[in-house]
Amino acid sequence: MRVLLAQQVACEKSDRQLFSDINIELHSGQLLYVTGENGAGKTSLLRILVGLSQPAAGYVEINGHDCQKMVHGASERLLYFGHKQGISQLLTATENLRFWCQQHAIDTNDTAIHATLAELGLTGLEDIAVKNLSAGQQRRVALAKLWLKTDANVWVLDEPFTALDVHLIAELESKMAVFLNAGGAIVMTSHQALNIDYPMSNLHLEYSW
Ligand SMILES: Nc1ncnc2c1ncn2[C@@H]1O[C@H](COP(=O)(O)OP(=O)(O)OP(=O)(O)O)[C@@H](O)[C@H]1O
């Protein structure tokens, strides 16, 4: 099943063309790894793919929905994990995830949220304002979304390993492998090599000025 289609996508920022004629067709169980040096346009591309930015040209759909017409860039079965974590600094981990689950119509409760936070090594930190957690711990709170949204069929992950320790990187890699083997599709970018035993395709963006 095709989950993502991008046709002749172009992006411009401040009169600079970052990329053009990007074509992607991603099916269930496929992994696309987007690479490129700083400023090449990886985040810009991912934001276009999930409908958070408009392309200068081209067309994108996820699960058959035109991404430019999706409310707040969200398709029901899409999970976007961006650079900015979408986590309020003032709320606790539990409050953040409770609110996020409500927004995404995820049927859960604090017990399940606490269990997920425990899986992510955050036992005892559930009810502390996120601003008082370390950078890696804050990242873990945001990553809990991947654990909680079990009905997603496509993950778009922008540098998911940033600030994570080696233990959690390995855990996330194995979570990704399980997701792919179950038919999920992933588009991701990272500056570090991905250590999973799974076939992937690569889209390399060249930095151009
Ligand atoms: N809103 C914006 N207005 C103007 N320029 C922007 C905007 N967003 C991004 N850019 C520029 O677009 C270019 C690509 O940025 P982008 O964040 O997509 O790169 P990236 O490949 O993800 O980089 P990195 O590896 O550093 O995360 C950069 O030169 C950046 O300055």
Automatic annotation (TrEMBL):
* Pfam family membership, one: ABC_tran
Q: What biological processes does GO assign it? A: cytochrome complex assembly
What residues does the ABC transporter domain cover? 4-208
Q: Which UniProt keywords apply?
A: ATP-binding, Cytochrome c-type biogenesis, Membrane, Nucleotide-binding, Translocase, Transport
A Gene Ontology molecular function term of the record: transmembrane transporter activity
Family annotation (PROSITE patterns): ABC_TRANSPORTER_1 (PS00211), ABC_TRANSPORTER_2 (PS50893)
* Keyword Calcium appears in the UniProt entry: no
Entry keyword annotation includes Nucleotide-binding? yes
This protein's source sits in the domain of life called Bacteria
Q: Which Gene3D superfamilies match?
A: P-loop containing nucleotide triphosphate hydrolases
NCBIfam families per UniProt: ccmA, PRK13538.1
Name of the featured protein: ATP binding protein of heme exporter A
Query: What gene makes this protein?
Result: ccmA
